Amino acid sequence: MRRRDFITFVGGTAAWPLVARAQQQAMPVIGYLSSRSPEDTADLLAAFRSGLAEGAFIEGQTVTIEYRFARGQYDRLPALAAELANKPIKVLVTTGGELSAFAAKAATSVIPIVFTIGGDPVKLGLVVSYSRPGGNITGVNILTTTMETKRLDLLHELIPQAAIIAALVDPKSPPSDIEVRDVEQAARALGLQVRILHASTDEEIDAAFATIVREHIQALAVTGNPFYDTRRLKLVALSTQHKVPTIYQFREFAEAGGLASYGVHVQAAYRQAGQYAARILRGAKPADLPVIEPTKFEFVINLKTARAMGVEVPPGLSARADEVIE
Hints:
Elements: H1 3-26, E1 29-34, H2 42-54, E2 64-69, H3 77-85, E3 91-95, H4 98-107, E4 113-117, E5 137-141, H5 148-158, E6 164-169, H6 176-190, E7 193-198, H7 202-214, E8 220-222, H8 226-230, H9 232-241, E9 246-248, H10 251-255, E10 260-264, H11 266-281, E11 297-302, H12 303-309, H13 315-320, E12 323-325
Parallel strand pairs: 1-2, 1-3, 3-4, 4-5, 6-7, 6-8, 8-9, 9-10, 11-12
Antiparallel strand pairs: 10-11
Helix pairs in contact: 2-11, 3-4, 5-6
C-alpha cells in the first residue's frame, strides 16, 4: 500500500466514529412524559413507536426518545416536565392523563406538545378548540371521563340484582368531580344506590375494599384514572379475592383477570399520538393539527372470571361484547 493511501485509510477509519457520533447527535429528540410506569404501559409504548415509525421515525435509528415516568406519583410531574423542557427536544409527548399535559404546558410555551388525556381539552383550557387548537399543544382525547355512565349501565346489566354499587374515584385526578357527577346521575336513572369511595394511595385502595366487604356492596365500577392503571394487578387481585364483580376502563384489566372493561381502543390512541409527533418533527405546527377523538370502543368480558365469581353473564350481553375471554 502506498504511503498516501495508507494515511488516507487510517485517517478515514479514525473519522468514522466521529461521523457516527455526529449523525447520532443530529437525530431529533422526543421527550416522553407519563404519569404511569413503563411496566404497565409496554403495549402503549409499542403503539406509540408504531405511530412514529409510520412517519419514518425509528427509535435509536432516526429519533431519540427521552423518557420520564412519574409511576402514579402526580407531584413528580412538574419537575419531570421541567427537566425535559430544559433538554434539546423537538416535541414533548404527554401521556397518562391531564396532569401530565398541565405539567408540560406549564414547563414550556415554545416546545410543541402532543397529549393523550381523558377529559375535554377545551374545557380544561389546554386548547382553544378541537379544530384549531392554537398555541403549542394538541393531541388525542381518549374520552375516559365520558365513559362512566356507559360502564355503569353495563355493570347493572351484568349484576342486575345489585341494589347498591360502589364507584372508586381518585380525588387527586382533575376529572374526579365530573366522574362522581356522572356516576351519581347514572345510578339515579337506574334506580341504584351508589357509594363513592375515594382512593389515591395503595392504603386507601385497601381501605376501600374493606368498606365494600363490610357493607356487603355487590358490585364496583373503577373510574378511569392513570393511578388506577398503575395499580391494575392490585385492583384485579382484590376484586378476585373478595369476589366483587368489577368493571374497568381498559381491556388490559379484563385481560389481567378483571370481570369486564369498556373504553376506547387505547393502543390506537397512542399510535395516533406517535403519528402526530412524527408530523411535528417533519414541520407541522400543533396549532394546525386538530385534536383527535377516537371512534373505536371495546367491551370485553372475562367469562373465566365470571364463572369464578358466580356471575351469570346474560347471553345477549356476551353477544354484544367485542371480545369474550374464555
